[in-house]
Amino acid sequence: PDGSDTLTERLRIDSAGLVHLPNAGGLVVGHTAKLTVQGLVPELQVLGTGNEDGSILMGAFGAVIPRLHLARSKHSSIGSFTALSANDSMGEIVFFGSDGTDFAHPAVQILASADGGFSSNTHYGRLTVSTASGGATLTERLRLANSGKLLVGGLGADADTLLHVWNATAGSVGAVANTVLTVENNTHAYL
Question: What is the pLDDT of residues 34-54, one digit of tens each?
Answer without folding.
Answer: 899 999 999 899 999 888 888
